[in-house]
Amino acid sequence: MLSGHLDNDPSLILSMSKLAHFSYLQNAASIKYFFQEYVSNEKHGGKRGIIARAISRSNNSLDKYASMEQTQIIFEMVELLLHLTRKKQKRTMCLIERLLKEISSQKNEVNTRIPTDISEAQAMCLDGRHSVFLNLPGNKVHNINDHAVLSISNVVDHIIGLGVPVEWLQDASGKRNTNGINGSNRAEEVLNSVLLSCEDKKKQQLVV
Question: Cβ–Cβ contacts within 10 Å for residue 160, how many?
């Protein structure tokens, strides 16, 4: 486990002999953890040793210890990632990388400000008067007889304004669209009703 240096380093030879006292645990990770936790003179040596090996990507170092701050940060990151799907894990790490790059460059007209507590995050992202979420474009909600309703014309205005492709029931050339809900019986009834209404209006105009 610590090959290559044993013949020349008495301290490592001593470490290996002490390490053997924990061999009954039969698990390499447990042996290293409890060795650094109880044999070393480092406070919280077991946890700090795990983090040091994780950071250095080496399982052979038993004399290196991360700081307590490093240890707490990495363990909290582990806890966070454990509760995320793999897709969200990737998104989280990508976000951290982009934030670090953005902070280091600061070439924008508005300097990047990273929320450092939940109240600041809520104010900037979700609930604050100037938050991102509350300033996204959206339809005005109306209350009619204790029912929340939206204006159809307002919905259409937003859809077109946002560049969302519109699938008409029937286009100007008369071509019928039956994709998705447009192919339902109710869609057919609505189209026929609209066309009938248009025909009636044309007849009224001719009479006038």
Answer: 11
pLDDT mean by block of 10 residues, the chain; 208 residues: 41 60 80 83 87 84 87 92 94 89 71 80 86 85 93 88 86 88 92 84 50
Grouping H, G, I as helix, E, B as strand and the rest as coil, residue 2 is coil
What token pair was written down for 118? 């939940």
Q: Which residue has the tokens 């042996």?
A: 31
Other C-beta atoms within 10 Å of 108: how many? 8
Note whether 62 and 2 are within 8 A (CB).
Answer: yes
Amino acid at 60: N
Q: What is the pairing mode between strands 141-144 and 147-150?
A: antiparallel
Distance CA 54, CA 69 (A): 15
Q: Residue 144 is which amino acid?
A: I
Q: Please answer whether residues 150 and 156 qualify as being in contact, where contact means their C-beta atoms are separated by less than 8 angstroms.
A: no
| β-strand partners of 24 | none
Residue 6 makes CB contacts below 8 A (sequence gap 6+) with: 12, 13, 16
Give the span between the Cα atoms of 78 and 58, in whole angstroms.
18
